[in-house]
Amino acid sequence: MALHGAAKGVCVSIRVACRHYSWENSVNLIKQLRERTSAPMKDVKAALVDSNWDIEAAQKELRKRGKVLASKKSSRTASEGLLALAQTPSKLALVELNCETDFVARNDIFQHLALCLAKQALSLDNSSSSAFHVGPQSFEDLTLNLEHPKINGETSIHNAITEVAAMMGENVRLRRGYVMPTSPHGFISTYLHTSPQPGLGRIAGILSLQVDDGKTQAEALQRVGSELAMHVVAAKPLFLTKELVPSDALENEREILKSQAEASGKPQMAIDKMVEGRLRKYFEDVVFMDQKFIMNDTLNVKAVLDNLSKEVGSSVRVVDFLRMEVGEGIARQETDASETVAQVA
Q1: Is residue 58 pLDDT above 50, yes or no?
Q2: Which of 78, 84, 152, 312 could form a disulfide with 118 if both were Cys (CB 3.0 to 4.6 A apart)?
Q3: Are 283 and 293 in contact (CB under 8 A)?
Q4: What is the CATH number of the domain that holds 34?
Q5: Which has the closest alpha carbon to 243: 343, 133, 129?
C-alpha cells in the first residue's frame, strides 16, 4: 500500500517508536483514536507513544493538550458558526455558537454541541414575561450531557466548548442567546435561514403571537406565523410599531430628511410635505407593522394580521419579534450586535 506526504512520515516514525508493538495494532489504534477525537494524526500518534499505546490514557492526554491548545486560540476572531433553536410549549431558546470557519460550522460535533446548548438554555429563567438576553455568564453553572460518538458524558459547558475547540483546531465560543416565553393563549413561530438540519441556521426570525381566543384555528395561525417569521429574516425590521421608535432616532431621521429636502431649494411648505412623505417611507423600512409583506407587497404586515384575525374569528397580535444573524457586529468589533427584540409597550 502506497503512503504519501505527511502520512508516510508519521507512519515511519511510528515504526521507530513501536519496535515492541505490532505495526498492524499501531495503525489500528491511531485510526480508533482519530475516530474518537478528530485530533490531527501527528497529535494522535504522539499521545499514544507517550501513553505506551494505552488508548484510554492517550485520549485523556489529548484532552489535556487540547485545553491548552484551545486557550491559545481563544483570542482569534470567531465570526462564523450557527444559531441553534430549542422549543417547548412554554418557551423558546436561541443561542449563537461561533467558530472561525464555515468548514467547522458544518462539522457534526460542532452542530451537536450547538443544539445541546440551546436545549440547556431552556432551563434559564428570569422574572420577565417577554424575551430576554442571556450571555455566556448565564451558562456558568449549567452542565451538558453530550451524546455523540466522539464526545459524550456529562461535563460543564465551559469544558465542553473547550474540548470541541481542541478537536476542531479553532476558537469556539458561546456568544449570546435569547429566551422567549410563550404568551398566554399564544404561540411562537420560527424560521431558520440556511439550515443544515432542523434546529440550526445562520439567520433566525422568531415571532410571538397572542390570540384573544385560545380555541382558534391553529393551522391558520401557524401558516401565517411562519410566513411572518420569514418576513422578519428578509425585511430586517427594527421596531414593532411607530410608537416604539425612540424619539432621538426619529428626530435624527427627521433632521437628515429635512436637510435633504432643503437642498432642493423648494418653498418651506413643500419641504415640510417632502419630509413627512419621506418619514412615512422610513417607517415602512424599519417598523414591522408598516412594512410591505414579503409574500404579497400589496399588503403591509398590519393588514396581514387583520386578515388573519378575520379568518380565525379572534384578534391576533404580535407580542415580540426577534431577528438574529451569525457573526453580526463581530467584524466591526462591536460588543452589541444589531439583533432587535421588540415588544408591545
Answers
A1: yes
A2: 84
A3: no
A4: 1.10.8
A5: 343
Are 97 and 226 within one domain? yes
Q: Residue 100 — very low, low, confident or very high, per pLDDT cuts 50/70/90? A: very high
Amino acid letter for position 300: N
Residues 308 and 329 in one domain: yes
Same domain, yes or no: 231 and 143: yes
Handedness of CA 320, 239, 96, 195 (dihedral sign): positive
Which residues, in sequence order, are CB contacts of 109 under 8 Å at separation 6+? 38, 148, 150, 151, 164, 167, 168
Tens digits of residue pLDDT in 203-249: 999 999 999 875 667 889 999 999 999 999 999 999 999 999 999 98
Taking residues 69-93, report their average pLDDT.
84
What is the number of structural domains in the chain?
3
Angle between helices 23-37 and 55-73 (to 10 degrees): 40
Clarify whether residues 270 and 172 are in a common domain. no
CA 247 to chain centre: 30
> Last residue of some domain: 19, 47, 73?
73
Q: Exposed e or buried b for every residue in 26-65, given b needs 16+ CB within 10 A?
A: beebbeebbebbbbebebbbbbbbebebebeebbebbbeb
What is the distance of C-alpha 311 from the center of its chain?
33
CA dihedral 116, 121, 123, 127 (to 10 degrees): -170
Which is more confident, 42 or 8?
42
* pLDDT tens-digit map of 278-320: 899 999 999 999 999 999 999 999 999 999 999 999 999 999 8
Which residue among 73, 89, 112 closes a domain?
73
